[in-house]
């Protein structure tokens, strides 16, 4: 009951200070408001981008490895002259891996070509990526269908001219018309639509299937050289669920070295890329941005903290005789101390809530202005409130302590 009484009185005193000295209190709270706004705005933007990018990375699969010519992560002393002479992953490498890999759920060979135009009657869609893959593509990627189906074994092995459309491609070519069974023109050839991928929306890493078309690799071999570097050949390997990822990676590395006939001690002439490489880089990048937000917002909060401390010293001076009366009626030192500490916390909370409200308004403006959706997460709201409370305690503790040590007789006479 004492705590609730203290909180109630503190709210009343803080409101009186705000009501009687509006300009002074508002200017003092401005530093807290700006500081919380900057910190939480930065954290909100970073968390939103991190989650969007991480969801894109997760599409690749946590137990998936990509055999490619170039590594995804480059260091400052990157020896590009070594990598440029590496051979690209080939269809022959894929066939050998498919026979040898024991810990793989699926091994898939892929090639792609971008910025293509596809046509259906008088409709056309530009800027489309054409992906060609072996039959195991559905085992190495998570595929969801809006309509139709995946390739059959016969279609995948016999170079049947079939394709699966991304949602945006389907909408651009067919609109509300059912595309299944229709023929479209892809890379100068007529192919039959057998499926449509479920719409995924925009992707930060360009991993969305919405603007892609998937065709069997056996069909693509009759159109372009799938082993050529210009078509970005790669081998995708997904490990079995009950096998440790490190074990799958070790087996894949050993098998690739055996296929490429590399001697012991000789450097790898291929790269094994994995999602953890991207996740680690994202953590480093976003940590640096968060530190910058703390530094910029910290200066504003520091200024605001001094402003709150100044208000509390003025409040102690103005209520000195009231403090003396309270102490003469039996109020203990801790009661006086907690009263002013709570008042300081309330004032900081007002400033922090104003900052959070500004962040919320900012998210509404950004979300209504474009397709990029910013989310104010609950943990960031609690962080803003927690920082406000901490600053309130730090700013109010010394004025509150000085108030609690006042002599009641001298305080009443002041």
TrEMBL record:
Looking up InterPro entries in the UniProt record yields:
ABC3_permease_C, MacB_PCD, Macrolide_Exporter_MacB
Superkingdom of this entry's organism?
Answer: Bacteria
Indicate the principal place this protein occupies in or around the cell: membrane
A Pfam family of the record is: FtsX
Q: Where are the transmembrane segments?
A: 26-46, 291-313, 334-361, 381-401
* Domain ABC3 transporter permease C-terminal, first and last residues per copy: 295-408
Tell me how this protein sits in the membrane.
Multi-pass membrane protein
Q: Which UniProt keywords apply?
A: Cell membrane, Membrane, Transmembrane, Transmembrane helix
Location(s), subcellular: Cell membrane
List, for all copies, the residue spans of the domain called MacB-like periplasmic core: 25-253
Concerning its family, UniProt says:
Belongs to the ABC-4 integral membrane protein family.
- According to UniProt, the name of this protein is ABC transporter permease
Record the organism: Pedobacter montanisoli
């Amino acid at each position: 009951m004492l705590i609730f009484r203290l909180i109630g009185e503190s709210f009343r005193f803080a409101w009186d200070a705000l009501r009687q000295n509006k300009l002074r209190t508002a200017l003092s709270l401005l530093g807290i408001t700006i500081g919380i706004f900057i910190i939480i705005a930065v954290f909100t933007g970073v968390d939103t981008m991190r989650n969007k990018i991480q969801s894109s990375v997760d599409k690749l699969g946590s137990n998936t490895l990509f055999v490619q010519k170039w590594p995804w992560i480059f260091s400052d002393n990157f020896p590009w002259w070594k990598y440029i002479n590496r051979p690209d992953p080939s269809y022959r490498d894929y066939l050998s891996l498919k026979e040898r890999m024991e810990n793989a759920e699926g091994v898939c060979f892929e090639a792609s070509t971008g910025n293509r135009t596809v046509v259906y009657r008088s409709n056309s869609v530009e800027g489309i990526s054409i992906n060609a893959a072996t039959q195991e593509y559905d085992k190495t990627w998570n595929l969801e269908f809006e309509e139709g189906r995946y390739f059959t074994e016969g279609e995948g092995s016999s170079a049947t001219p079939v394709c699966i459309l991304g949602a945006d491609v389907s909408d651009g070519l067919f609109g509300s018309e059912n595309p299944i069974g229709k023929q479209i023109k892809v890379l100068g050839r007529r192919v039959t639509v057998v499926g449509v991928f479920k719409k995924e929306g925009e992707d930060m890493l360009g991993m969305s299937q919405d603007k892609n078309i998937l065709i069997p690799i056996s069909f693509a071999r009759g159109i372009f050289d799938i082993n050529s570097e210009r078509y970005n050949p790669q081998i995708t390997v997904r490990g079995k669920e009950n096998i440790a990822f490190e074990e799958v990676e070790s087996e894949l590395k050993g098998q690739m070295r055996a296929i490429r006939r590399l001697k012991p001690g000789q450097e790898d002439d291929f790269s094994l890329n994995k999602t953890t490489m991207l996740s680690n880089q994202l953590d480093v990048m976003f940590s640096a941005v968060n530190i910058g937000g703390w530094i910029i917002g910290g200066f504003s909060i520091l200024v605001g903290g001094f402003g709150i401390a100044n208000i509390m010293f003025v409040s102690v001076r103005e209520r000195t005789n009231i403090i003396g009366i309270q102490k003469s009626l039996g109020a203990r030192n801790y009661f006086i101390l907690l009263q002013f500490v709570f008042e300081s916390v309330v004032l900081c909370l007002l400033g922090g809530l104003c900052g959070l409200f500004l962040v919320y308004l900012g998210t509404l403006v950004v979300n209504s202005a474009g397709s990029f959706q910013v989310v104010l997460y609950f943990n960031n709201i609690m962080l803003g409130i927690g920082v406000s409370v901490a600053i309130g305690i730090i700013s109010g503790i010394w004025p509150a302590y000085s108030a609690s040590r006042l002599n009641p007789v001298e305080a009443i006479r002041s």
